[in-house]
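User: Teach me something about this protein's shape.
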Amino acid sequence: MLELRLLGVLELYRDGTLVTDIQANKTLALLNYLAVTARPHTRPALAGLLWGGIPEAKARDNLSKALSTLRQVVGTHLTIVIFRSHHLSLKTCLLPRTICRPNPPPSSVASKR
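Assistant: First, the predicted structure itself:
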């Protein structure tokens, strides 16, 4: 089982053990982004999100390396689906459903004057 800890320091646990195989912060950020959004993303969108300030070819190369690392670490939890372009997503059904999100702001009630 995978467990992502998103509050404070980003951490990944596999079967209760801290995973230290991910050295790059952006690789761990990619994993967390895929988990939190829980929907497919295109490779160009992810490369632009994480490496938007560098040339496109280098951003694609960085994404490819990050995905290779994630495949080794999370295995079958990472799915690449081919539609018209490559889409990436996590099999979120395999992740625990305990992702913490801040409470929504209280609804404002408009007062009549």
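Now, about its shape. Confidence is low (pLDDT under 50) at residues 92-113. The first strand starts at residue 2 and ends at 5. If you'd like, I can walk through any region in more detail.
User: That's plenty for now, thanks!
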